[in-house]
Amino acid sequence: MITGALLVSPAAQADTGPATTRIDSVDRAAQGERVVVHLAVTCPAGATIKLDVTVTAANDTRIAQGSRVKRLDCTGVAQTTEMRVERDPVGAIFIVGQATARTVRKVCDSSACDVTAIDETIRIS
Questions:
Q1: Which domain of life is it from (predicted)?
Q2: Taking the alpha carbons of 105, 78, 69, 92 in that order, is the dihedral positive or negative?
């Protein structure tokens, strides 16, 4: 299930052009201390994109959660990127199974920024 929310005016969208992000896979690493999120990203050449990914998963009666922010220069063609999301040390470790991911992308060019949030169900492998 994928849901999204547009957080700025539609006029700003036209200035930054179409942008897409897609989580291709999420792998458990370091005995559950982190997950590695593999994303496909497309955004207009000359713009920049800031990705903020938060992964949340249940581990028995506890919650594993972590966030990571990354900035990329847009090329106008599809790019892949990897984000190593460390768990919050107060929470549980990540385990293999279903989780949720919230990706907030902020695409900016010289005249405007477009912010979009996407919530999706993922699987940690």
A1: Bacteria
A2: positive
Structural domain boundaries in the chain: 2-124
What's this model's pTM, rounded to 2 decimal places?
Answer: 0.84
- Architecture of the domain whose range is 2-124: Sandwich (2.60)
Q: Which residues pair with 56 in a beta bridge?
A: 65, 100
Per-residue pLDDT at 11 exceeds 80:
no
Which of 75, 82, 6, 69 has its CA nearest to residue 40? 82
CA-based nearest residue to 97, from 64, 52, 54, 53: 64
Task: Name the pLDDT band for 17 (thresholds 50, 70, 90).
Answer: low
Average pLDDT over residues 43-70: 97
Q: How far is CA 7 from the centre of its chain?
A: 16
pLDDT score at 15: 44
The Cα–Cα gap between 92 and 32 comes to 9
